[in-house]
Amino acid sequence: MTQPDVAGPSEAQVTAIDTFVDALYDLLHGRAQSISAIDLSLEVNGWHVDGEVLFAKGPDIGISLDTREGECRYCELLEGDQERWLDVVQGDLHVLDNPGSELLEAAALALLDGLLTARRPLLR
């Protein structure tokens, strides 16, 4: 039986992830008013970018981007610390391979599109 790869990202990969988080935050902040977002938070947890987008009128959405796989999953944030993971998965978000700002902005836009797609059926 092989042991899972538990090594964290290299310094260059951490820089790439942080650069993507900056691009994503800038995009979300810039579009906050148009999508009715009132609060957003993003954090890096090793290979993952986790975040929450709170809206003026629910539902609120959480994100978890696995930067190794290039896939983002979305969840509905419920009362307390509860969450319900949604079926929407946004792929092809290879932020470790995209050093250019245009490519990072495109990946951030794709992640936002997935977030809005995941949220749309939940709107009442």
Write a short abstract of this structure.
The chain is an alpha+beta fold and 124 residues long. The protein has two helices and five strands, in the order αβββββα. It has one domain.
What does it look like?
The chain is of the alpha+beta class and 124 residues long. The chain has one domain. It is 35% helix and 31% strand. It is built from two helices and five strands; from the N terminus they run H-E-E-E-E-E-H. It has a five-stranded antiparallel β-sheet with strand order 1-2-3-4-5, covered by helices on one side. A hairpin with a 4-residue loop joins strand 2 and strand 3. Helix 1 crosses helix 2. The longest helix is centred in the N-terminal third of the chain and has 25 residues. It is globular and about 40 Å long. It starts with 10 loop residues before the first helix and ends in a 5-residue tail after the last helix. The model has no long low-confidence stretch (mean pLDDT 92).
Alpha-carbon distance between the two ends:
48 Å
Strand arrangement within the widest β-sheet reads 1-2-3-4-5
Secondary-structure element order, N to C: HEEEEEH
Structural class: alpha+beta
Radius of gyration: 15 Å
Quantity of strands, as a count: 5
Mean pLDDT: 92
β-strand amount: 25-35%
Unreliable stretches, pLDDT < 50, 5 or more residues? none
Shape category: globular
List the helices and strands and how they pair.
Elements: H1 11-35, E1 37-45, E2 48-55, E3 60-66, E4 71-77, E5 83-90, H2 101-119
Antiparallel strand pairs: 1-2, 2-3, 3-4, 4-5
